[in-house]
Task: inverse folding
């Protein structure tokens, strides 16, 4: 029976990934220090005979008993609000955490997959973004703590691949949404949905003309699992190429919720990327992957989840 370790396994993406790997028949150990993860995300997995949760900070010395076939490093604060609140943790988990988990993968001869990000492209000068674009990142700006930690992580993974012949994968994850995002996560989708449900002002930053491309969680997890089980060892974009402006996303969420909220405008955060859209040609070619869930269907599922959390049912 194959065994996987998922760091950040109690987070939004990590918990869906743990669930999917259990469904694939693997044993799954989930590590999370719960800085931004939530034990409720994995509550339904506790007691499963192939699942184990350990509260642990992966920037500390890492020891795991027994064999491991796969290590998936997903631990990190991931919303701009979170990494502004925890800049040093963000830098440490992307650098030291990547180093520690790579060392463990080497010792266990495990395949290693790191969660990288569209943020490695920064405020991109090439649009849409292909994997061979090197990016436009401000290393000393407030977003630099996340962007540079992820860029360092990718460099470290490639060094382990080249020097130690470690079997590695790099997924560059674009904006993703779905159930188990935190209500107070600070990102656009959870903010807009919570504000719309509560009939509060919907806060669009800047004039809302900046664009993002939002992928539903089940599509993202499918892409990651296909990459994990593929032979491809260089970075792959996984995201939904449907590009929308932030203002249009706010209007769409308001409509889906049927809300009376007003849309108001607040200052644009420093270094907020003006555009973002993945080129997913590579994922299509090598993984035969493309997203299936429409934004509307994904948003309906997500709104239902947020309603149940806000009403205290979940
Ligand atoms: N945003 C917004 N209102 C909010 C939260 C975010 O207008 O309440 C904007 C943010 O400035 C950015 C976009 O929505 O342009 C996506 O932000 P998010 O934090 O979701 O992720 P990012 O893609 O910036 O990492």
Result:
């Amino acid at each position: 029976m194959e065994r996987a370790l998922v760091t950040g396994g109690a987070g939004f993406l990590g918990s869906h990934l743990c669930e999917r790997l259990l469904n694939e028949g693997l044993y799954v150990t989930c590590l999370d220090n719960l800085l931004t993860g939530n034990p409720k995300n994995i509550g339904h997995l506790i007691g499963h005979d192939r699942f184990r949760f350990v509260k642990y900070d992966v920037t500390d010395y890492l020891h795991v008993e027994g064999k491991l076939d796969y290590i998936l490093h997903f631990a990190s604060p991931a919303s701009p609000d979170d990494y502004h609140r925890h800049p040093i943790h963000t830098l440490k988990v992307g650098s030291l955490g990547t180093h520690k988990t790579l060392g463990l993968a080497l010792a266990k001869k495990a395949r290693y997959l790191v969660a990288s990000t569209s943020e490695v492209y920064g405020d991109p000068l090439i649009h849409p973004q292909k994997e061979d674009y090197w990016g436009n990142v401000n290393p000393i700006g407030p977003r630099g703590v996340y962007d540079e930690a992820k860029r360092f992580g990718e460099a470290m993974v490639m060094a382990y691949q080249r020097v130690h012949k470690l079997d590695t994968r790099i997924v560059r994850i674009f904006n993703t949404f779905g159930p188990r995002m935190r209500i107070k996560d600070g990102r656009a989708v959870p903010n807009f949905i919570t504000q719309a449900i509560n009939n509060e002002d919907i806060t669009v930053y800047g004039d809302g003309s900046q664009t993002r491309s939002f992928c539903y969680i089940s599509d993202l997890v499918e892409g990651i699992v296909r990459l994990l089980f593929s032979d491809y060892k260089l970075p792959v974009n996984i995201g939904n190429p449907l590009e929308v402006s932030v203002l249009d996303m706010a209007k769409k969420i308001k409509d889906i919720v049927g809300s009376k909220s007003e849309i108001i405008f607040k200052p644009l955060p420093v270094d907020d990327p003006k555009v973002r859209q993945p080129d997913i040609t590579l994922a299509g070619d090598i993984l035969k992957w493309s997203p299936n869930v429409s934004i509307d269907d994904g948003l309906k599922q997500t709104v239902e989840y947020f309603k149940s959390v806000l009403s205290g049912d979940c």
Observations:
- The mean pLDDT is 97.
- The pocket of uridine-5'-diphosphate is lined by residues 79-80, 175, 187-188, 191, 203-205, 210, 212, 246, 268-269, 272 (CB under 6 Å).
- The domain at 181-212+242-275+294-311 is CATH 3.90.25.10 (UDP-galactose 4-epimerase; domain 1).
